[in-house]
Amino acid sequence: MDTKKLRQKILDLAIRGKLVPQDPNDEPASVLLERIRAEKERLIKEGKIKRSKKSASDDEIEAPFEIPESWEWVRLCDITELIEDCPHSTAKDEGHGYPLIRTPNVGEGYLILDGVHRVSESVYNKRNARAVPETNDIIYAREAPAGNAAVIKENEIVCLGQRTVLIRPFKEYINSKLLAYFIISPHSRNSLISTAVGSTATHVNLESIRPFIIPIPPLSEQIRIVWSIERWFTLIDELESNEGDLLKAIDKAKSKILDLAIHGKLVPQDPNDEPAIELLKRINPKFEPCDEVPWELPNNWCWTTLGNISDYGKCIHVEAMDIPNDSWVLELEDLEKDTAKLLQRVTCTGREIKGVRSVFRKGDILFSKLRTYLNKVLVAPEDGYCSTEIVPISLCDSLSSHYINHVLRSKYFVEYTTSCGYGVKMPRLSTTDARKGLIPLPPYQEQLRIITKIEELFAVLDIIKESLEA
Q1: Cα four-point dihedral sign 459, 464, 467, 470
Q2: The pLDDT of residue 241
Q3: 419 by DSSP, 3-state: which?
Q4: Can you tell me the distance from the alpha carbon of 254 to that of 410, in angstroms, rounded to the nearest whole number?
Q5: Counting beta carbons within 10 angstroms of the beta carbon of residue 321, is it exposed (0 to 12), middle (13 to 18) or buried (19 or more)?
Q6: Of 70, 290, 379, 469, whose Cβ has the fewest other Cβ atoms within 10 Å?
Q7: Strand-strand pairing, 80-85 and 302-305
Q8: Per-residue pLDDT tens over the stretch 360-400
Q9: What is the C-alpha radius of gyration for the chain, rounded to an integer number of angstroms?
Q10: Residue of 450, 288, 314 whose CA lies nearest to 394
Q11: Dihedral sign (CA 150, 153, 158, 160)
């Protein structure tokens, strides 16, 4: 298992704006940058910082890849109060005193203080004469090995060691952790290292660091990205010693995500959404809420049954001989258990079929009533025909087939259908029991928000899983 590759993929998604969704309500980064410019001018006038010399930073920025509309490309010197090199002299380990941060002590986002060299107060003061490292400053390793960047935590009093650079962003507008993660992302790391100079010991100099271009998201999104990166990194850290455990954890995480979704805990409720009970009354004016329910739902949700919101069991059957040759014919064996991913797509001419098949339309939910514990449920991507062991489900208006699909695939519903199955070797779910299945229904707009969040989280988990299985 290449956990380093996994982390790099997470960081690459993050810097390209693909790790978390954008929120149109976020203040765009362009406004953020205007505030930084104003703050920088104020500090220059007060003599607290110096104006940057004319350099490559004055040239027009050529974006190396596309970023979301609310983001902005900037140069590092434009979003920082200072970028300061360490003293070029070495410092001897005195065994006690202040931690001396050398390149081996600069990790990927954090400082590595185990076995750190230490120096006296006089050496500390001398080496930090240009700038004293502060909480949430970034220390960049510019040489041997180059490329890592670490954020100084609260109460970490450190001294700049050999071959390091201190970077201080405008912390009110730029999240230090996000900036460090973007600096160590594959694109930034490789771009900076490619500028390294020197013969015996190459190093990245300040002339390359200061004008380096980097994308900046809105402040709210910066925080969401950092939270997401650290959540995924924690998962990898906990399980990187055992690939099998990590794969199991990914499947468990997906199950947990669906569980949170159907309990109304995956996305926030919006009081402006039309309550689900109003939707259900449009479907059936005589609708009455269920009496006995598995758990309490948010106020604007409502329990209903699969039979109340769909045509479950009302299938249209056709003889196999009447199916057009180029039509898609779906059999249970074509679906992977638990994931319901299509293992193969076969047309009528590609397999021998007899008897009858059920007609389904694009957008129908295809639900396997045979051995429901195999969890073969999916939304039809196109029209076709399926085995009679698969039930096409067409929903009433103002219902999302993708949301109901996730409910049917959740651990809660799988356990319900498994408990109802009749038959020993090949248990099936009866139409009556299926129609009685209780469905936790949110407002329509929240259904859509839940789908978006599930797809976002599942996409990252799938990337990790594919990296493990590659």
Answers
A1: negative
A2: 57
A3: helix
A4: 9
A5: exposed
A6: 469
A7: unpaired
A8: 999 999 999 999 999 999 999 999 999 999 999 999 988 99
A9: 29
A10: 314
A11: positive
List the structure tokens of 146. Answer: 């180059």
**Residue found under tokens 């409502």:** 302
Per-residue pLDDT at 363: 95
pLDDT in tens, 56-113: 445 688 899 999 999 999 999 999 999 988 887 888 888 889 999 998 899 988 999 9
Q: How far is CA 371 from the centre of its chain?
A: 32
**Amino acid letter at 206?**
L
Q: Which domains does the chain have, with CATH numbers?
A: 3-238 (3.90.220.20), 268-444 (3.90.220.20)
The amino acid at 208:
S
CA separation for the pair 421, 54 (Å, rounded): 76
Residue 399 burial (CB < 10 Å; 0-12/13-18/19+)? buried
Q: What is the DSSP string of 94-118?
A: -SSSEEEE-GGGB-EESB--TT-EE
* 111-150 pLDDT, tens digit each: 999 889 999 999 999 888 888 899 999 999 988 667 899 9
Strand order in the sheet with 138-141: 80-85, 164-169, 138-141, 149-151, 108-109
Q: Are 461 and 254 in contact (CB under 8 A)?
A: yes
